[in-house]
Fold these 2 entries.
Entry 1:
Amino acid sequence: MKKIVRASEIARFLGVVPRFDDFPIERAVPVTKLSEHSISFLKNKDEEIIKKINSIRSALVLVGDWADEEIQVPHIVLKNPRLGFAKVLQHFFAEQPPRGIEKTAVVDPGASIAEDVYIGHYSIIEAGVVIGPRSVIRDHVVIRRNTRIGSDVLVKSHTVIGEEGFGFEFDEHGEPIRIPHMGRVVIGNGVEIGAMNVIARGTLEDTVIHNGVKTDDHVFIAHNVVIEENAVIIAGAEISGSVTIGRGAWVAPQAAIINKVHIGERALVGIGAVVTKSVDENMVVAGNPAKPLRKRFEQ
């Protein structure tokens, strides 16, 4: 069934008084494909696009605060139209997550699972695991013993959480002796863990991923790592043991961060960077070895 919402509902949801005649919105589209009864956004002024969409009378465009009299199509002015568009999609158009436990999932009786959690096909949840309300664990996920997962968490398919990390010490014969890992993985609320991630349990303390963190696919997070609120870790990044990543930091694709390094609050680690030294807050670093380039934000 097609989702239909009134343009006036969207305006009120965004905290804006509508200044256009009301009409139904049936779908979200890229602005280059705007048509009647659709919604999109235009972050930066583009005269070609504006000319193309101005003849449409029953569509809604979220635009930046650059908007002027050239915009004739029904629109809403926002400081960040892309963010507004994301919120509208999430609230009005996104599919509701499934609930329940699939028959092929294996859940230990000693796990504590909130009633409205979803656990997908062939996933394994071991004893002592705690999963909070409204969290979604997709297919073929392995969550080892005593892992704690908060509310509204998404774990995508083929991810492994809570296995031992790669920790060894060498004896007098040069043989590597495994250091037992007795810590946990603790994941906060509103976290998203990508597909094919590996997150190792702590050795003596926990590996901790705080509220709002997002990881892309193919990310590796080693033992004792602490990732602070709202940090973003992109595809293929490797975070070595005992690294701390500050609040709101951004780690780009294929970056590698050596043991015990600290990435400062709001810092940005560039694509493919090899980080061997700690990074100051709000600093952009790139290269091999990574070197500071500039501040990420001026304010």
Entry 2:
Amino acid sequence: MKVVSNVPDSRMRLEELDGLRGIAALIVFCCHFSCAFIPGLIPGQVEHPYWIAYTPVGLLFNGNFSVSVFFVLSGFVVARAAAKRADPFYINIPLRYLRLALPATASVIFAWTALTAIPNAAIRLYQLDHSLWMAQTFQQRFPDFFHALFDGMVGIFINGGSFFNNALWTMQIEVIGSIAIYLVYGIKSGQRRRLIVLLIGFATLFMPHYL
């Protein structure tokens, strides 16, 4: 006999979301691959994209849609964690920053290593397909290692992107959103919190269109 519990779900990780996260990650990978090697599949990368990009099939490599899914999932997970944690925001925010910055920095260092090892690769690829993605990647005259390290730990959050790893443009939005969530959940009054959430939601209607 199945017993139905009225106790709220206290699991820190929701495995039900892993499948959605995995599908979205695969689509983003396909988008990045297409941006670099088949830019005609991605509107905005070339002047005249392939017709298939504007069909339902385009969802299979539409990175913007999947990134939006990631933003929603990230906001939900961070808000859920903030609601359960008793730590103050001045502890949660640095921890969240490190969770974003450390893997991002590792990807920047990996990209820096690959670009410096094969310095002409990005140029040759751009000459083949004139990909905007490759045009926004460092080509020759690469900065030193410490520039790459700073780019991953600080630069991506200030500049909203990286010429080492184009995919890191999302990090600025992630950190701003995370800070906002932890600050909101740091307010003890539920009524004030709901009011601020409504105001933030209204303000987002006038924010720049990132995607």
